[in-house]
Design goal:
With 427 residues, this protein is α/β, with parallel strands linked by helices. Helix content is 54%, strand content 10%. It contains 19 helices and eight strands. It has a four-stranded parallel β-sheet with strand order 2-1-3-4, sandwiched between helices. Helix 17 crosses helix 18. It is globular, with a radius of gyration of 21 Å. The structure holds Double cubane cluster (BJ8). The site of Double cubane cluster has 20 residues, from helix 7, helix 9 and helix 18.
């Protein structure tokens, strides 16, 4: 959202971006950010860091990636939580999570894939076709994964436009699946080593495990403060922290989030909140909300509720569990990484009881008055799993509302009416 007229245009142009389309995207994201974020009252001061990061989202951070690559470094882009950042960093690469949270160039996308494809997939293909994402263009390699069928097939098309490597992810969590997954992680390690020209060693992997764990620990501290009533931070701001975690510089981000957590812990001790005490508290579960998808959080919070947690890949699934730090050698560390990552509860897996348990546990821990189960349209895995989520919540005595939507703003009025009625019902 930096001023598109100055500074960075040469860099964007060298990256091959379509400057006109890129200006349009940046302008739209800037306006949305202003309307969604900067209108909030009583925000924690620590959010200033994330405001700054967002202001420079295609500016300073891209310059850092650019300088890193010009000095011989390699950038690896990812789309899914299952791709272990620790391995990429241990091989000397930088990892950036690619966003795919906005509608762009759908007309072009629908010429090459069905209309009834989920927004997230259409978004990343659209960003590539329209040449508007500098993170994609800075990625020397993009890692795909065999999660849902839509992504799996989309990577075949995407692979014709970019250097893509696909990891095979099992769909069950038996011992033999873990063994297969571990071998995929070893293959990824060799792939990234070939790219960077650096071997993963015991010390580098140990350091990267610690570094990424520290980032997750900072996010865990922020998440824990959201159990307080009044909540010390809005759901929107907490969501933004997780979204930025995917692409910001790791040590700098961790330091800033620990400073934010210090402030939030003080707010809790002082009884300071962003929403009045007693405001309806909502846990959101479902498909990930990639930048700049803030739609549902905004609807809930503008209707007088407060989002106190996200059971999703841009939420607890990202930071709740850590890789063990006591692995004695490379093999043991790779075992630990394989175990931690296979433990993520995506609806692509069957059965997926762990997610249902997490939703109920989080609703209790965060004292949520209700759960909203959010699915992107045409995402079969999450839409079908919705039945189990509803049942688990009802059995636990937690009211639940299921919502199917996409990235467009056309249904905001209708969703607001449903959310307002739900908030009224849960209080
Ligand atoms: S670990 S949730 S990031 S796969 S919404 S593209 S599933 S049709 S995003 Fe995901 Fe990894 Fe799972 Fe998380 Fe397909 Fe559904 Fe679209 Fe989805």
């Amino acid at each position: 959202m930096s001023d598109t007229k100055v500074d960075y245009r040469k860099m964007w142009s060298e990256l091959g971006l379509n400057l006109e389309a890129h200006d349009a995207l940046l302008g739209a994201v800037g306006s949305l950010y202003g309307a969604t974020y900067l209108t909030q009252e009583n925000r924690p001061e620590g959010m200033g860091y994330l405001d700054f990061v967002m202001t420079e989202v295609h500016g300073l951070r891209i310059k850092e990636l650019d300088d890193f690559r010009k000095a011989g470094g390699k950038v690896v882009g990812t789309f899914c939580l299952y791709v272990p950042e620790e391995i990429i960093r241990a091989a000397g690469g930088w990892c950036v999570g690619l966003c795919a949270g906005a509608e762009f160039a759908y007309d072009e996308v629908e010429r090459i894939m069905p209309r009834n494809t989920c927004s997230l997939i259409k978004s990343f293909v659209g960003f590539k076709l329209a040449k508007v994402c500098p993170y994609m263009e800075e990625s020397d390699l993009i890692i795909g994964e065999t999660t849902c069928d839509g992504k799996k097939k989309a990577y075949e098309i995407f692979g014709e436009m970019h250097n893509v490597y696909v990891m095979e992810l099992p769909q069950m969590k038996r011992d033999k699946d873990l063994a297969m997954w571990r071998s995929e992680i070893v293959d990824l390690m060799h792939k990234v080593e070939d790219l960077t020209g650096k071997k993963v060693g015991v010390e580098s992997l140990r350091a990267s495990i610690k570094e990424v764990n520290d980032k997750r620990r900072a996010l865990q501290r922020i998440a824990a403060t959201r159990a307080a009533d009044p909540a010390p931070i809005s759901g929107k701001d907490a969501l933004l922290a997780t979204q930025v975690a995917f692409y910001d510089d790791v040590p700098r981000f961790t330091q800033s989030m620990n400073a934010l957590a210090d402030e939030l812990e003080k707010r809790v001790a002082d009884g300071v909140g962003v929403a009045p005490k007693g405001a309806p508290r909502i846990l959101i579960t479902g498909t990930p909300m990639a930048l700049p998808n803030w739609k549902l959080h905004d609807i809930v919070e503008k209707a007088g509720g407060v989002v106190v947690g996200e059971e999703m890949c841009t939420g607890s699934r990202y930071y709740e569990s850590l890789v063990k730090e006591d692995g004695s050698d490379l093999d043991a560390m790779i075992d630990d990484i394989a175990e931690k990552y296979l433990d993520i509860n995506c609806a692509c897996f069957t059965p997926n009881q762990g997610r249902l348990d997490d939703v109920v546990r989080m609703a209790k821990d965060l004292k949520a008055d209700g759960v909203i189960d959010y699915s992107l349209q045409y995402c079969n895995a999450y839409q079908i799993e919705s039945e189990h989520v509803e049942r688990a919540c009802r059995d636990a005595g937690v009211p639940v509302l299921s919502i199917d939507t996409d990235y467009s703003m056309e249904d905001v009025g209708q969703l607001s009416t449903r959310v307002e009625a739900f908030l009224e019902m849960v209080k």
